[in-house]
Amino acid sequence: MIEFSNVSKRFGQDEAVDGVSLRIASGELFVLVGPSGSGKSTLLRMVNRLVEPDEGSVRIDGKDVRDTPANELRRGIGYAIQSVGLFPHWSVARNIGTVPRLLGWKQERIECRVQELMAMLELDAGIATRLPAELSGGQQQRVGVARAMAAQPAIVLMDEAFGALDPVTREKLQHAFRRIHADTGTTVVFVTHDMDEALQLGDRIAFIDGGHVRQCGTPLELLLNPVDEVVRGFVGGASAGLRLLSVRKVRDAMTPGSLIDGAPSIDAEADLRQALSMMVDGRLRALRVDGADGQVISLDGLLAPPR
Amino acid sequence: MRWTERSWPLALLVLGITGLLASLAWNVVVVAPNRLLTGHGYVTIAVPALRWLPLAWLAVLATSRMRALAGLMVAMTLLPALVAATGLAAAGLLATAGEHARVQLGAGFWCMATAAVLLVADRLREIQAQSYLRLACWTGLALLVVAMAAAGVFDRLSIVQEFALQRMRFITAVGQHLLLAFAAAAAAVTLGAPLAMAVAQRQAGRGATLAVLNLVQTIPSMALFALLVAPLAWLGVGGTGNAPALVALTAYALLPVVRYTLAGLATAPSAALDAARGMGLQPWQVLTRVQLPLGLPVFAAGLRIVLVQSIGLAAVAALVGAGGLGRFVFLGLGQGANDLVMLGTLAIIVLALTADGACRALERWMEPRA
């Protein structure tokens, strides 16, 4: 568990973070979202002591981060950033193995782990010996994520880690990362300015603005009950309805019913936005749900208030 | 192929015309009654053994319409032929001159030799020669000239006679010169590199350091040597000799050392540094594993600049009694013996070029690793 207790940080005259308290549960994928300059990165960097708070404290599993020497602390926390920051003179494999090597792992164990991570992030094993400059942007980001997770840290910090990618590559990586997170049970703190990314990834989201937490909750809570106009403007706007559909699953909105055999069907784990898209595409009012006999997803189901 | 279809080989034309004019207009050798008196000059067509030179330059110009390889062949032949013929011509001229007569190399010779060297370099670039071919060409030419020297082809040239008189002193001077230059470079690196690392992160410190070092650089070298005499004498290390020379050369070398160290450290992308810190590398690990290896080519380039600069500046150190090749230059200036000046100057040029070439080779060797 990561706990921010009333932390503040000033840079010169600017109050970057102002009295923030947050509690992030173990295994959670927690997103800090907000406009640029809102203090979300500063907050993130307090966890691994790249930034020391002026006031308040950050505790990991009840222990103040300041009680652990900075370098030791950082080796136990994964760190991935938007500009990736791969070491240009090291091969992909060596980059990924940075922290395990710092921790003094045996060579075979490092090699083994590197192979495992490359498979996990769907990187071709053949690029292990390449230099970062020879990779595409998407591959670099994947290597960056692999490097952050190399030493099996309990916590991974990601600062706009998918920020520099084109939408298609980005979505692929988000899906891959969601799956990896579910498999490993790592606590992830993820910073982004992109609300769609936050809604897509986050178990919970904290909306940060002007160094304060304006609202903290699940994606659905933020969408349904924004606390004020600022949050409403950021989460909602013109696409609020579509976003609401994208964070809910077919499983949560299906209703009893039956359709003729051979009618198009959708997976119960797909989101409602995909369901709507299929309906519009096929000019249908309802779809069968795979693996759920006697259940359908209909236009009325989409419009019904979330349960 | 028609003229319009490819670009003009401008360098070749300029060098060829320069060589041709030099061969026709300037003295290739000067025969003087002794080593100090002014002599009588000869252009190429006045000396039987050298009459072919204007034709050779015309041949160079003719290759402008052929492949670059043809130009390279002509240039590679012209250069050793020029020095050999000049050496032999000197012997011929001396046979009919007086007992103390000297044959000095004239402006025409230096001009043609320089043009021929540049021509080889230009043609090598034009054929896009691999580095081993370049190395082979230059080493071949150097060995050829050394072999001719060993065979006594140049023995009747005044500059070689000066060398023969000063042989032991010359060899000692080369040693002193190199020692001085390398010691200054080493001292500058020892002082400058940690200084640069210390101020690299501090905007104000960096500005102040560079301002001071820039100021040092603007002091004329002779003035700096003179300025150091009094304080060093007061310190008891002696105002003349090696101490002030070393101090002054080190002071001059500090600016490039600091500049290049800063540039080398800045080679590492800031994102990589952030990631390195964020993953728990200690500051010294960030330095040794990320910044130093990434900056290596830049550091090597800096070292090259510092060495070449120090070898050049060390000539002036002779003024404060530090020895080195500068002694011959100032001795020759004092006596009016141009060949002695030339002996010192040529040796310094060769040393500087050799240091430059060796460092460049080192840089190329390092680059793919970094």
Verbal overview:
The complex is a heterodimer of chains A (307) and B (370). With 307 residues, chain A is α/β, with parallel strands linked by helices. Chain A has two domains: 2-244, P-loop containing nucleotide triphosphate hydrolases (Rossmann fold), CATH 3.40.50.300; 249-303, Alpha-Beta Complex (CBS domain Like), CATH 3.90.1280. Helices cover 36% and strands 24% of the residues of chain A. Chain A contains 13 helices and 14 strands. In chain A, α7 links the parallel β7 (155-159) and β8 (187-192). The model of chain A has no long low-confidence stretch (mean pLDDT 89). Chain B is an all-alpha fold and 370 residues long. Chain B has a three-stranded antiparallel sheet with strand order 2-1-3. Chain B is flat. Chain A binds chain B through residues 45, 48, 50, 70-76, 79, 81, 83-89, 98-99, 102, 144, 147, 157, and chain B through 269, 271-282, 285, 289-290, 293-294, 369-370.
Tell me, briefly, the overall form of chain B. flat
Q: Report helical residue fraction of chain B.
A: over 70%
Order of helices and strands of chain B: HEEHHEHHHHHHHHHH
Tally of alpha and pi helices of chain B: 13
Main beta sheet of chain A: strand number and arrangement? 6 strands, mixed
Explain the layout of strands and helices.
The complex is a heterodimer of chains A (307) and B (370).
Chain A: E1 2-11, E2 14-24, E3 29-33, H1 40-47, E4 55-60, E5 63-64, H2 70-75, E6 77-81, H3 92-96, H4 98-102, H5 107-120, H6 137-149, E7 155-159, H7 167-184, E8 187-192, H8 195-201, E9 204-209, E10 212-217, H9 219-224, H10 229-235, H11 240-246, E11 255-256, E12 265-266, H12 272-282, E13 286-289, E14 295-298, H13 299-303
Parallel strand pairs in A: 3-8, 3-9, 6-7, 7-8, 12-13
Antiparallel strand pairs in A: 1-2, 1-4, 4-5, 9-10, 11-14, 13-14
Chain B: H1 10-25, E1 29-32, E2 40-42, H2 53-62, H3 68-95, E3 102-105, H4 107-126, H5 131-150, H6 158-199, H7 203-218, H8 221-235, H9 242-265, H10 270-278, H11 283-313, H12 326-335, H13 338-366
Antiparallel strand pairs in B: 1-2, 1-3
Helix pairs in contact in B: 1-2, 1-4, 2-3, 3-4, 3-5, 6-9, 6-11, 6-13, 7-9, 8-9, 9-11, 10-11, 11-13, 12-13
